[in-house]
Amino acid sequence: MPKRHRYASSYVATAVVVAADAAAVILGLWIVMSILDANPANALVSFIHDAAHWLAGWSYNLFTFETEWLRTLLNYGLPAIVYLVVGHAVAARVRHIER
């Protein structure tokens, strides 16, 4: 089997890990920006908020604590952890297929 086909799953696994890590970083950035009360009129803050809101859409308002920072931490932190765990598990499985 040619090398380019034998190692193709490594590239797929790397892409999965990068996507999962990028999602977790965006969610983490929004948590930090929200807790530090970043200016919502700023374009970067607005972009990160929109992206994080989309990424965490499946778990939005899962926790409804009255404390805003705790609600933000849990509602956006849980998806970040899920993306990391699932993304790395899928990548490990894809790499295992290679063997």
Short précis:
The protein is an all-alpha fold and 99 residues long. The chain has helices at 3-6, 8-35, 43-55, 68-98.
Q: What is the count of DSSP helices, taking H or I runs of 4+ residues?
A: 4
End-to-end gap: 13 Å
The general outline is elongated
- Counted beta strands: 0
Structural class: mainly alpha
Write structural notes for this entry.
It is a single chain. The protein is mainly alpha-helical and 99 residues long. The chain contains four helices and no strands. The longest helix has 31 residues, at 68-98. The mean pLDDT is 90.
List descriptors:
mainly alpha; 99 residues; 4 helices
Question: How is the secondary structure organized here?
Answer:
Layout: H1 3-6, H2 8-35, H3 43-55, H4 68-98
Helix pairs in contact: 2-3, 2-4
